[in-house]
Amino acid sequence: MYGLIGKMMAATGKRDELLEALREGITGMPGCLAYVVAEDEGDPDAIWITEVWVDEASHRASLQLEGVRRAIERARPLIAGFGERFVTRPAFGVGLGSDGGMGLPN
Amino acid sequence: MYGLIGKMMAATGKRDELLEALREGITGMPGCLAYVVAEDEGDPDAIWITEVWVDEASHRASLQLEGVRRAIERARPLIAGFGERFVTRPAFGVGLGSDGGMGLPN
Fold this sequence. Notes:
The structure is a homodimer.
Chain A: E1 2-10, H1 15-23, E2 32-40, E3 46-53, H2 56-62, H3 66-75, E4 79-94
Antiparallel strand pairs in A: 1-3, 1-4, 2-3
Helix pairs in contact in A: 1-3
């Protein structure tokens, strides 16, 4: 599995709009086991995106999906920048869609 | 929803053992929508735990579950310390168990 944990900074006051722009892009992504978009509790302009993919190629391919490209276009003017970014190898978990979960090997 | 993103440092060379200790603790946690344990790609002793709960109370209650307490006991001697920790409010996502997902309000 391939994982990403990343912080995105919305333009001041635009976090809700940014969330809406992202919401529509994350359905129907092949190989996506988990994709959670969350507000940072301590920073009113920050969001965290945590992702689990079957492999890195699935993540890369998702960036070419029409729905994802449209969401990126909508989100772009609402993004002020990016914060921390961590690449991970998910080992196991709860809530990893139908392809993953406790039984999937590393 | 209530979310946590946290980095845990294994004692040198003990990451695999730490993962095994944690693996058994994370089943059957009421209110847990997602719980992913991942190796840090760039740091051989680090793991990331990303969690989504129905609310903060569910997370707090989980720490009293017998399975979780046993896992914490097993994990404790394998943990060298903790790194970054971010508290979040998950807004929506893919892979949020049966209680959550796209339709759940903030």
